[in-house]
Model the fold of this input.
Amino acid sequence: MMNDQQLIRALNSVGKACFVKYYEHADDPALPQRIRDAEGYSPVACRIRASGIRSIIIRHGRGKDALAIIANSKADPEARKKAAALLAQG
Done:
């Protein structure tokens, strides 16, 4: 199980705004390509980010916890707003 410190470290590796933006696409097999097309990161960086997102949400079941951390963080205001909206959806 991923503890809170590991969760925060994983979120920082992915990037809070990136996590929120692609939260709903965690189960998409084309997630690394989706990130690359939109963000322009290197292929390796996209695979690392996609893996981090999937690890938090799918493998460890900490997606809602991550959204709560982002909603209450000093992250980009749009990311905080979207994280809060995703949390409200349930």
In short: DSSP finds six helices and no strands in the chain. The chain has a mean pLDDT of 96. The CA atoms of residues 71 and 85 lie 9 Å apart.
